[in-house]
Amino acid sequence: xxxxxxxxxxLTVLAVAALLRDRLGLSAALGVALAGVFLAVSATGxxxxxxGRLQPWPLRLGLLAVFAALVLLAFVARRRLPSIPPxxxxxxxxxxIGLGLLLFAGVGLRLAPSPYxxxxxxxxxxxxxxxxxxxxxxxxxxxxxxxxxVRGVPQxxxxxxxxxxxxxxxxxLVGVREGRWTAGIxxxxxxxxxxxxxxxxxxxxxxxxxELDWGFARxxxxxxxxxxxxxxxxxxxxxxxxxxxxxxxxxxxxxTIGLVALAGLALHPLDxxxxxxxxxxxxxxxxxxxxxxxxxxxxAAEREERPGARLLATLGGLCFAAGAFTRGSFVAHAIVLAxxxxxxxxxASRSRRALFTALVVGTALAVVQAVxxxxxxxxxxxxxxxxVPRLTPRPGVAVACTLAAGAALLLLDLGLRRLPAPLRALxxxxxxxxxxxxxxxxxxxxxxxxxxxxxxxxxxxxxxxHGGPLPLLFGLVGLGLALRRAxxxxxxxxxxxxxxxxxxxxxxxxxxxxxxxxxxxxxxxxVLTVAASCLLGHILARVERRLNARxxxxxxxxxxxxxxxxxxxxxxxxxxxxxxxxxxxxxLTSVFEHVPEDSLLLFxxxxxxxxxxxxxAPALLSFGRDALAVPPGGHIVEGALKAGTPVFLLxxxxxxxxxxxxxxxxxxxxxxxxxxxxxxxxxxxxxxxxGAPARLVDGGGPxxxxxxxxxxxxxxxxxxxxxxxxxxxATAAGFVTEPLPLPEGARVELWLPAGAPAxxxxxxxxxxxxxxxxxxxxxxxxxxxxxxxxxxxxxxxxLTIAAACDGPFAWRWLSVRAAP
Length: 820
Known about the structure:
Blueprint (H helix, E strand, L loop, with lengths): L3 H21 L1 H25 L5 H25 L12 H17 L12 H15 L7 H4 L7 H7 L17 E4 L2 E5 L4 E4 L4 H13 L8 H21 L4 H5 L1 H13 L2 H7 L5 H23 L5 H16 L4 H15 L5 H38 L8 H21 L5 H28 L10 H9 L1 H17 L5 H16 L11 H29 L2 H22 L9 E3 L2 H8 L7 E4 L7 H12 L3 E2 L6 H10 L3 E6 L6 E4 L7 E11 L2 E3 L10 E3 L2 E8 L2 E3 L5 E3 L6 E4 L2 E4 L2 E2 L4 E6 L7 E9 L2 E4 L1 E3 L7 E4 L7 E10 L7 E6 L2
């Protein structure tokens, strides 16, 4: 039944939150419930993926077991945890209503996530790999062409087509990365045909789980709860930061500050674009915000002597580690946070230790999983994004180094407990100085950066253009003031926020290619939004003290309009970028449903729209077809045709005839016939040099699927016909061909299968002038039957083969070629 697992997950969240509310408070109970269910689903999916059993019934049984365990643990914790002390403020009714309305509006704007299936882009690979996992239960696809399992296509020819070179026996690339299949997919083991997607796999696992619960058309639905989790965590984070300030005016407005932050995120046009697109930043952002929210709630609980501090901190660390399972750059975030936690040692020692331990252990496991499953991507991403030397250790060495580094961090944390007091006091100052310097450099990069169409444009310039100047200015100033005033509990998170802003400021070359800005926008938008909302609270509290409450309300209304109206003006307008934006899974299904599973699929080089790069990955991963993702050699096509393997060609449909020719520079043209035609829609931004795209155009177009005829034609005029060729019509005893060109001086060869019954076979040509019997030529042992053509040969004639046999007549192929 569709949606059963989703319903069980929501019921589990409600049950756990209800059981723990009177022990932890509403906010903490909701955070525990959401984090517990999120982590439980993620862990179950990854474990089943590693076992190769991510299929309907194992998934249902596994999730049912972990949901029941979560409810049981909540019931046990409810009996063991003391109730919260009286007087702990919960959400006022007005704040709760505002939270519900903003969540409803934000989710409503994001209810139609992109069904992106095109290959050759990261977001398309994510969806296709998720569909592949849902179909097969495993991560690694197996290419039958590479493995040599397709009839008539030798493995050596395919390996040569993919330029797979033999690796030295001692090379760390053996069985890890032996070539590249297409963008985003690497050849892990060429002779076994095993491929590996080149990225982290938690989000495709969520897509697979959603498909198993809702069907293929709703596989990208997890983007909606990812944003909902981000929004709730953002609200809770801003509210908690406001509650922990010394200003009573800010604390009194804590709920309102959380709502302002949530409104800023929900109505931001860049966030709206990212949150509906199938990129890992959506899941990683939810992990980042949930971890920060739970960690600060844990510190507050320990400081106020409320129960559940270590539980909240542990869940926060695990949520952050889940981000490392999602995106490679998140490992860098984890390193920054872990180092900051080592240096900033606060009075909430138990929750800090629990957070640090969960963070280090979880991130180490994420790196191990990345090395095991995406070894090539892990080290190439580190070199590309962080400019570190590209390393190529053996997977076992990389795993051992990761575990050793994690253990060293845990031991270092134990050793730093005995630091002298002067050194303990010096570390927060160093962190505060590093964070402040990062913000200064970021502001300088923004001021000195290029214009809107400059190739050295920064990500912060994109934020300025699409979010308005006020939230960016408030965010930078608010983050700077928070760094100056922060205590040891909040300082590690603020240092991480400063590092996120710095990397966004230094990233250049995005132009209007927002695709390359998404890595940073998804993290920096919520960071600046929370900082701006907290600064707004401080401004209003100061205005109220200096003037009165009415003046503070008027100032707040004016600032909110200046903040929210510019993004609202841009909200209906698409954030365009010059790559493909969306497509329809139903349209791709209509293309590939005409291709049998045991066939060979090729892509036409002449077709517009990069057909091979866009559709090879969906053909293999989502539809399970044997797709050749490189230009085919003539010998590959010939071998498949000779062996009887159906060969299909996908191309743009610009030729009106149902029978066509596919030209090739290396050999004569292949004859084809059209199997299906249609129109493929793929919206994309128009390309405008030096300016912003103003509209979307259809980057797809007409397509036609052609089947290559079982015939081989040479540039010399010679040809070979096979059974099932469109040029051949079978008769009761023999066959007749269509009128075909007959080269001068050629002869007719008919190859019969070994062990065929004895037959009396004759051949003739039918021309406009009449029928002419062909003279038989001597036949070599185990050779073909031979006939000579009349001289002079007719320009075109139909060949007739008649056979009288003791049994059924069978033949392998008919050739017309020059006599030796």
